[in-house]
Amino acid sequence: MEVDCEGCAGCCIDWRPLTGRDIDHERRGPFEPLDDAYNLVPLAREEVRAFVDAGYGDALRPRLWRADDDRSVTLDGVDVAAIDGRPVFFVGLRKPPKPVAPFDRPTTWLRSCVFLDPTTLQCRVHDDDLYPDACATYPGENLLLETESECERVESVHGGRRLLDDEPPDVTPRFGPGAVGERVFAHPEPDRVESRVGRFRDGDPTPEDRAEFVAVAAASSPGTLAVNGERYEQALEAVLRADSWAGRAIDRWERAAVADGKRARDAPDPGVVEDADGAPSTPGW
After folding, report:
1. Count of domains for the chain
2. Region of poorest pLDDT, from 107-111, 175-179, 203-207
3. CA distances from residue 91 to 41, 146, 181 in whole angstroms, order as listed
């Protein structure tokens, strides 16, 4: 599998505002996400733990889904997907607005992965042990399942060739019965998160809301609904005290940004917002 990512980052940004076409999420499963984050990266349990241990708990966020059948539980007036009455979710990387210029377009405010360098359009953890497997193997799962990849969407809208080799690699789909406790998690106490669900629905979760779910994911056990109480407490404390360059950059970008898709004429310098605050450099092309 070979791809050309230079000047693209289509799988790392929400570039829908740059086109009038109806481009939907890469959704997995039958449910609709509560949030509108585009291509949210699903992290495995060990990856969640690694980010938390590295001090990046403030760069993580959960995703919950709507459901209208018997596989749901009603919390804060929202029917959310559940297993045995427990709301299910996965954990991904936050996507704040950033001033980026993909596809040779003018610099624009677009929702982008927290670890995407707005200047080089490269991942700041690409050469790090933290680099998620879902990113490292993309679009392998799409090719395996014969579903359209972001590379192909970019080609159809902006031209050029991004997917240079469409031979499916040797990857295993990340979702299925074995995903419980590994990539899909279940919160053990629905009553404890009832008031939080409404804020996720409204797109305004607090740091405490995000931390609650991230800590449960970090304390989950593969193949079961079990959550280790001691590990949960440790993870919750670590996420709540996280103060990384990534989390600070999210706050700065959100304060500076105008509407998604608008020209970023007066955007702060990414070198000041991210690089000068300790963000790792990117390797270059």
Report:
1. 1
2. 175-179
3. 8, 25, 11
